[in-house]
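During the second year of the project, the team shifted from modelling isolated chains to modelling whole assemblies. The rationale, set out in the original proposal, was that interfaces cannot be judged from single-chain predictions alone. As a representative example for this report, we include one of the complexes processed in the last quarter. Its constituent sequences, exactly as entered into the pipeline, are reproduced here:
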Amino acid sequence: MTDPEPQAGPPAERPAPSGSDRRTVLATGAFGALMVLAAALVIIDAIRLPETNAVVGPAVVPLPIGILLGLVGAILLGQSVLRLRTAPAGVQWQPKALLRLAGMVTALVAFAVLLPFLGYVVTSAGLFVAAAMLLGATHLGRMIAYGWALAAIVFLVFDRLIGLTLPTGPWGF
Amino acid sequence: MDQLGLLLDGFASAMTPGHLLWALLGVTIGTAVGVLPGIGPALTVALLLPITFRLEPASALILFAGIYYGGMYGGSTTSILLNTPGESASIVSALEGNKMARAGRAAAALATAALGSFVAGTIGTLALTFLAPVVADFATTFGPPEYVALMAVAFITVSALLGPNLLKGLAALLVGLTIGLIGIDSQTGQPRLTFGVDALLDGIDVVIVVVALFALSEAFGHLLTGSGHTTVQPLRDRAVLTRSDFRRSWPAWLRGTALGFPIGSLPAGGAEVPTFLSYSMEKRLTKHPKEFGHGAIEGVAGPEAANNAAAAGVLVPLLTIGLPTSATAAVILTAFQSYGLQPGPQLFSESGPLVWTLIASLYIGNVMLLVLNLPLVRLWARLLTIPAYGIYAGVLVFATLGAFAAGGTTTDLLVLCGLGLLGLLMRQADIPVAPAVVGLILGPLAEQQLRRALTLSEGDPSILVSGPITVTLWAVVALALVTSIAAPLLRRRRVARDAVHNG
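Output from the structure prediction step:
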């Protein structure tokens, strides 16, 4: 799969996140908010658990975890709000980054839904092509060949050799 | 001498042609995947979990031992030639080794890393052989209260060590603990956090969480930031050491090993601390201080040895008390659990032949790595020219395969995608994913032990501090908490004072 295109490379070329730039602070705030939401769900779920005969019921661990989730989430959210104004600009995302991410999520959902109907080789090859193109590959034909070859090898090794049953689809692979 | 006999039995089992083949396959796959940039040993093992699903336990664990050591080895190649550490413990190799490579000394850097890894891996495995049964014997005296305290130590130290600060580490840990709650409560049969979704009644498979948080989030991250450009340093010579390089390397290997194994064996150890300690020790002891920061061979030799010795050390708490103290160890624990094996003191008594076969295969894998890798280093270096889009598209294919193999339903793949997005948010927020995996794996075990302890005492929580071991362990928890809160404050105050002092 050696390719002369320039997209090659590791994350090392990206500037490392400093941990206090604007994007990190925003992401931390979003994560904190998500934790607070999760805390509410965990606590409500724990409270509605019925009493049992056990000395220690099923809610004894979820309750403190829910409370801690809420506390830590609230602190992260609070810290982010305080730091947001002074946070410097962080790592620049590439053009259409969120669109690419949405495309990848769509490809994964399509893979999950179509796998039982179209079989492993076709859907995995499709996933590889979609992922490679979204990640910056330019030669569609070459990606289809690589994707098809990888999916076929994986199918042969895991399904036929190791015995892990993979969905076959209407054409038997 | 009992251990020696058991180890020889282990060798007899590990030296069968079938097992040798698995070991060879493990080190080859481990090295190949470990070499790929951005893929460290934890991700390597996670991605390759499905390979072992249909194997008998001994073959699978031998394969894993090979993948684990091979992944560590491959990571150093990437660090040196591409300046891309697969995990934090390889940062130092990247620092000093890549400088050597840029100065045209890539072959010497790779050779000292390979030989250092071999020396440290062998001594570390030897120490594991004799230490592990002793620790396991001691751990058989542990009851539920001791286990609760021990897991509290693991939770706090992992949160404090594997993240930028305690708060973010705790946030990650809580994510793992919460995911661990999903499913039917094993003691009362009550469904928790399932929200009426039948597919969640069995909980979320650890493999899916591990693959999503490590592999998917990494691939998603590349979508946002782009993949940059490769700057692989060319490799001109054979990977051999000159006499002078060897003279400078071997003391560093031994010092690195002496630091790496004992620290790696501690529940709070991990591989990062000894690696950095080794680097600073070599910097202090070197006769070539001017070379440091510009490609000093001791700066690669010591930390690489410390890194590998710690990897063997990490197996001590993992095998003897079931405590994973690094991300890779957490994934290996998952592999054990997928075979219905629970690492801990009983592992040695109940599955002794299996454990000794595994330990013997670590020695074999180590030798294979050296024999295989020094001549083939050019081939591994060629892997670094694979474009990032190819690597991460391949990672996605293997990630979905792993999730499907673990669960086998569309829901599992959708959960994988959702958790991958959560992992991406965590990476963007600079929240480490490793404590989440540790929390997910140890959370249900800690809950089980806590409820067992409280049932024994009829609900009296004082049982949790009822013996000298528990009191000591809770003191360690308190100390770790105070240290991780106070240390950054002191550091900040010192920086502020220095700033004022410097004008």
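Chain A touches chain B through 85 residues (CB under 8 Å). The radius of gyration of chain A is 23 Å.
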